[in-house]
Structure formats: structure tokens, C-alpha cells
Design goal:
With 244 residues, the chain is α/β, with parallel strands linked by helices. Helix content is 29%, strand content 23%. It contains seven helices and nine strands, in the order βββαββαααβαβαββα. The strands form two sheets. Strands 5-6-7-3-8-9 form a six-stranded mixed β-sheet, sandwiched between helices. Strands 2-1-4 form a three-stranded antiparallel β-sheet, covered by helices on one side.
């Protein structure tokens, strides 16, 4: 018997988008396999975050098609968990770590959080190695801990695809090492798409890299050499260090 064909987790076909001016993403075509761990890299203003917003259904392509598990992103929104690059927080508001993570269950609840919601939130915090911080005020955490809480919020919704926008921004090397181990473990049960400028971190984690500079090209991590980086970022003095 012929085995069933696996539907891609994400599929772009000839997708273009602009904000009313110059084209930001042009004729993008690529696939992300289920269970994959890919990174989106490219220069500032190159279209990385736009690509993510198209994937999440927050923006609509002007041409081409986008599918998530074979359906429109708008239909599959609950199957994607998202951690944005920037979060505006009023730190005078007394939110606990558990309160923040429970926000990831809002689409699943009605008038109040259930025991299952709380259990999912605690499980997500355990995955992110933050069980000692459950009742801590969110504002008291370090930058690395806050980043992991926000990822726990996304994981709490039990997504099939976890989308992270610059998760290593403003965290120290120790926090980055913890995050690397956690993401590697999470990838055993979900597809991960990560926007990152940190090429060293990318080279450790992912198998494929989606290079975005208006147009889109997909490379295996092993193919991402100094020449490819120079073409992408335009820096002649840039070097790639492959870890491990």
C-alpha cells in the first residue's frame, strides 16, 4: 500500500505583498514540513515579519495562495502559537506569571478558566523550566525569563506550529542555552518557525533556513555559507560560525 502523502504544515505559492508602496514580499514559494524546525533570516526591512504575519493570517496576500495544513490560515488560526518580537506591557498592572500564560487559553474558554486551562498553563511553565515562578509578578522576571513566559503562553494553547519572532533578542548567553534545549525538546511534538538574526543560534537548531530579502530562497543549514550570508545581508566582513 502506498503511504499517505503528508500535507505540508505551511505552503506558500507565488505569494506577493506590499503595504501600498514597494513590494515587500515578491513571488514567494516554499513549504515547511510537519515536524520541521526552520528559521526565517534576512536583513531589517527585508520582509521577515511580513512573511510571518501572512503565515498567521494577520495579513492577506495580494497574489498567490497560502495554506496551513492544507487550509486557509484564517481557518487554522488555533493551530498556530505566536510569540511576537515586541510586547507592550503596563508593568504597574499586577499580573502573575500564571496570569500571563493563561492568556494563551483565551480562545478556549468562555466565562472563566477551567481546571484544564490551569493544568495546561502549569504544564507549559514546566516545559519552559519556570515552575518556581508560577506566582511571581511578571514584572520581576529577567529578560530571558520573560521571553520563556511568553513562549509558554503560546505553548499553552497546544499549537501544532509554534512561531517565534526574534526569541533570542535581549537575552544573555545562559538564557540562550536554556532556550536552545527547550526548543529542541518542543520540536519533538510541534513544528517550529523562528525568525532570527542570530545565525550562530540558527545553525545549531534548524535544518532549513528561509532567506528573505523581498524574494525568498530556502537553504539547508549546511548550505548557509559566508557567500550566502554576504548576498543576503550585503556585509563583506561577515563570517558564519557553525556550532557543534
Amino acid at each position: 500500500m502506498t503511504p499517505p502523502v503528508s500535507i505540508p504544515a505551511v505552503q506558500f505559492e507565488a505569494v506577493s505583498f506590499s503595504y501600498g508602496g514597494p513590494v515587500v514580499v515578491e513571488d514567494a514559494s516554499f513549504e515547511i514540513e510537519q515536524g520541521g524546525f526552520v528559521s526565517i533570516v534576512g536583513p531589517n526591512g527585508g520582509g521577515k515579519t511580513t512573511l510571518v504575519k501572512l503565515m498567521l493570517g494577520l495579513l492577506q496576500a495580494q497574489s498567490g495562495t497560502i495554506q496551513v495544513f492544507g487550509k486557509s490560515p484564517a481557518v487554522c488560526g488555533s493551530r498556530l502559537g505566536y510569540t511576537p518580537q515586541f510586547l507592550t506591557v503596563d508593568f504597574s498592572f499586577p499580573l502573575s506569571v500564571l496570569d500571563v500564560v493563561l492568556m494563551g487559553r483565551i480562545r478556549r474558554r468562555q466565562l472563566w478558566y477551567t481546571k484544564a486551562d490551569t493544568a495546561a498553563a502549569r504544564s507549559a511553565l514546566e516545559t519552559m523550566q519556570l515552575t518556581d515562578c508560577v506566582h511571581e509578578p511578571f514584572r520581576n522576571l529577567s529578560g530571558g525569563q520573560r521571553q520563556r513566559v511568553l513562549i509558554a503562553r503560546a505553548v499553552c494553547g497546544e499549537p501544532d506550529i509554534l512561531v517565534l519572532d526574534e526569541p533570542t533578542n535581549n537575552i544573555d548567553s545562559q538564557s540562550e542555552e536554556i532556550l536552545y534545549d527547550i526548543l529542541t525538546e518542543l520540536n519533538r511534538r510541534m513544528t517550529i518557525v523562528m525568525v532570527s538574526h542570530d545565525i550562530g543560534f540558527v545553525s545549531r537548531c534548524v535544518t532549513n533556513v528561509i532567506c528573505v530579502h523581498r524574494t525568498v530562497a530556502v537553504h539547508s543549514t549546511a548550505e548557509l555559507d559566508g557567500k550566502a550570508i554576504h548576498q543576503l545581508y550585503g556585509h563583506s566582513d561577515m563570517k558564519l560560525v557553525l556550532h557543534g
